[in-house]
């Protein structure tokens, strides 16, 4: 266990990386941890292995939760910037932390696992998913599977997305993660979700398939974008994607105030342009109609 004095010293030496290794979406969604190794080297200990030992000690100390979150992320960063013979020990310590009593530490440990791009990470994350009850953490678990960026994640992510009894947030997260790792045929296997009972799941599936396979026609995407039952974030993603496909700005940002404003502008644009989209249509696939 860390003594208070030791924790104080390490807190001071870790301070230089706190601004970079911080528990926030901007860092946790950075696909490849594009950080320079120098901040980690500022830990005033001997060598990479000693750094790992100290970070493991901090992570396993049950008192300084914020410091433990930083340690979990720092272990993941060390693994990516300075691979060490002690990486397996760091990985094991992070896996142990996924059982922590503090939700924030649990969530951070789960997301740190997403940067150990090894098959064992899939098994560890799937194990956490079976026992975690917190919906927000379950969604972050699914995101971590996507961050792994290895083929072994496609099967569990697909099963989560197709589970009609699962939480909507978790299923949507699985669809987002699949965009990063699935092949075209694997994405098309999600087409049954185009008739899912949840409007947002239907729309998010159409968006994911369109982004990765160009197999959803523009008319269908516009229909999802005009569906008031689709959640706000997916609606915004759909409009941006439609603008990308069509190569034109549809929504005037100066009047982007409400969902109703967006819908009116989209309807007006579609009325003027729907007859000219034939050249924009993607390749044809037999996909179920919603």
Describe the secondary-structure layout.
Elements: H1 4-18, H2 25-28, H3 38-41, H4 47-60, H5 65-81, H6 87-97, H7 103-113, H8 119-131, H9 135-148, H10 154-162, H11 168-181, H12 184-188, H13 199-213, H14 218-225, H15 232-246, H16 259-273
Give a count of the beta strands, DSSP E runs of length 2 or more.
0
| Global outline | elongated
Strand content range = under 5%
User: What structural class do helix, strand and pairing data support?
Assistant: mainly alpha
Compute the average pLDDT: 76
Low-confidence stretches: 1-48
How large is the radius of gyration? 22 Å
Order of SSEs: HHHHHHHHHHHHHHHH
How far is it from the N-terminal to the C-terminal residue, by CA?
56 Å
Number of helices: 16
Helix content: 55-70%
| Largest sheet geometry | none
Describe the structure.
By secondary structure, this protein is mainly alpha-helical. Helices cover about 65% and strands about 0% of the residues. α14 runs antiparallel to α15. The longest helix has 17 residues. The radius of gyration is 22 Å and the shape is elongated.
